[in-house]
Structures are given as structure tokens and as C-alpha cells.
Amino acid sequence: MITAIVFVKADVARIPEVAEAIAALEGVSEVYSVTGQIDLIALVRVRNHDDVAAVVADQLNKVAGVTDTETHIAFRAYSRHDLESAFSLGLD
After folding, report:
1. CATH (domain of 49)
2. 3 CB contacts (<8 Å, ≥6 apart)?
3. 31-85, pLDDT tens digit by residue?
């Protein structure tokens, strides 16, 4: 499974509609509205790199109201649960 984190800049007046349209795309698991230099963060979870291109370049970038994107491919995942297990002394 490949995870891509996509930073999305959108037409400010259309952020809710843009977020909903992106969330409806196959391969997009979550969309968050955020503060800062970007408007939305979309998580894309697909089987291979070609599918990332199909979702981001062929669909997400073409959603009306999207003005710019920046895509980051995740290569290792860490979670609180994983970190707690790694540092556990096994005293439970």
C-alpha cells in the first residue's frame, strides 16, 4: 500500500465543496481542512505508484476550485501505538 499526502491550495470561497469532491475520489481516504499556507490535506492510499498518478494528476488536480497541489509519498509510517510498543519494557 502506498500513501501519498497531498497539500491542496483551493479557491477560498469553495473550500468545503472542493474538500467534498476530493473526498469522493476513489483512492482518497481522508481530507482535512487545515490552517497555514495550504487549505486542505488529502491522504491518498493506493496499491502502486501509477495509481497515485491516476488519483492526483488525473483527478484531484482537475477538481474545480483546486489551484495548486504538492504531493509527498510516505515511505515509513510511525504511530503512537508503534512507538509505545518499541519502547515497552514488557512489564504489562
Report:
1. 3.30.70.920
2. 43, 44, 45, 73, 74, 77
3. 999 999 999 999 999 999 999 999 999 999 999 999 999 999 999 888 766 555 5
| pTM assigned to the model | 0.84
Q: Is residue 67 part of a domain?
A: yes
Residue 43: domain span: 2-74
Q: Position of cell 490552517?
A: 35
What is the torsional sign of CA 16, 19, 23, 25? positive
Q: How far is CA 24 from CA 17, 28, 35, 82, in A?
A: 11, 7, 22, 30
